Amino acid sequence: MALLVQKFGGTSVGTPDRMRAVAEHVARTVRRGDQVVVVISAMGKETDDLLRIAREVSNTRPGREMDMLITAGERKATALLCMAIADLGVEAESFTGSQAGFLTDSTHTNAKIIEVKPDRIRASLAAGRVAVVGGAQGQSAERNVTFLGRGGSDTTAVALAHALGADSCELYTDVPGVFTSDPRIVTNARKMEHITFDELLEMTANGCPKPAMRSVEYARTHGVELHVRSAFTWESGTVVTKESTMEQAIVSAVVHDADEAKVTIGGVADRPGVAAHVFRALADADVNVDLIVQNTSEQGVTDISFTVPHGDLEKAVAICETAGAEVGFTSVTAEPAIARVSVVGAGMKSHPGVAATVFETLAANDINIEMIATSAIRVSCVVAEADVERAVVALHDSFGLANGPVYVD
Ligand code: ASP
Ligand code: MG
User: Fold this and answer.
1) Which residue ranges does the record assign to the ACT domain (predicted)?
2) pLDDT surpasses 80 at 348
3) Does residue 152 line the site of ligand 1, with CB under 6 A?
4) What is the pTM assigned to this prediction?
């Protein structure tokens, strides 16, 4: 008998038919002899709808009330799924995040988990029931309802799997697993059987939309095995585990992020404290700066370029203009139409030449590289947004990813 956490995303439970299909899958798992804890998202696009209504109703939108509102979506879904499971003769009980023992900090709309005490979930399982928990929610020390942020249901599932010592955490979604590249862009992208936490973390940090990056971090820290799979075909998906001691793919995946913009500050005096001043101002305004490149200086002046999410571009430019007036640099330029393409693979740590192949591939396709960044298992290039899809296709091809990975020992 295994203990499984099964998480279902919004699309997986988007309609009454989908709810019933999920209930059947859960009931089948129970009949097979396994214990199941379900974590569920709000149905379909309900979270977006609730956010939209809130914007229409209010300009203030206090965090406490936003969290009460948004978490209602998941709460409705838990009750409905329990009803559908009951129809199949299996007992199920719904739980809010707070009933499931999720204690969080009080950062409304983006709360962090402090502790999970799933006593009531354990009791429910011991009584032979299926526990159905609302995703992305908890309770603060002040006993207010909190929301864990967009994509937070993945984190709920992983944290619950860890707290319960579950055998596996299955993340059911609308795609059959983690792909070597976005299948909408690369027609011969392949579903991976296995991937390491480190690789998936790099992928989610560099544009791969699912699972939520925070949940992958949590799973890596606590060693929770993940299985990303489809709620539509029920076929086996991608298993995410610790780094294997055996062979490792040199390159596992090519991901891209088009939600990037570039800011360049020019005529920056090359002396201590200038970068500190600018980036402190950006940090204090909560601008999430990513890739940063500073040129070597000529005659005591240099320029610095960095990327930010599109949504932060205007704010970043305004802050740089103010900072420029304070520390005396001459220009601030914004380039909204850029994107980042990244190749990721645990095997590149011990295999030279990956960066060279990336640059050659882009050059052969006449794609200009604006910025370069690397980690131990990733090479990223910033290119014009208009070129990024061609870059993804070309890199996927030149690393032979459609044919299966090339390994190093
Ligand atoms: N429903 C929420 C969202 O779409 C939380 C989640 O499902 O992860 O972000
Ligand atoms: Mg979701």
Assistant:
1) 263-337, 343-409
2) yes
3) yes
4) 0.92
